Amino acid sequence: MALATITRQGLVSIAILVAILWGCVFAERRLTRSSRMETYRALRDIRYLKLKRHIQPAATPMPASNPAPSIRPILG
Asked: 14: Cβ–Cβ under 8 A, 6 or more apart, which residues?
């Protein structure tokens, strides 16, 4: 004697809900993987820009036109 039985409609609704749940799990994994890759790309770009900034000088130095040091009074 069964206390409760699952109808065909109940089994179908459980199957649909399980499929939706697995779809959400796979979508979440895909989103986290793509966000992780975007984070790595952004960090790599930041690192590249910092390296580029340190390697290249802002301007070339001007040649010294007056080799003798200027004599000025020191204030202080």
From this structure: 6
Nearest CA-CA partner of 32 in 20, 22, 42, 24: 24
Q: How far apart are CA 15 and CA 18, in angstroms?
A: 5
11-26 pLDDT, tens digit per residue, is: 999 999 999 999 999 9
Task: Delimit the domains of the chain by residue range.
Answer: 10-57
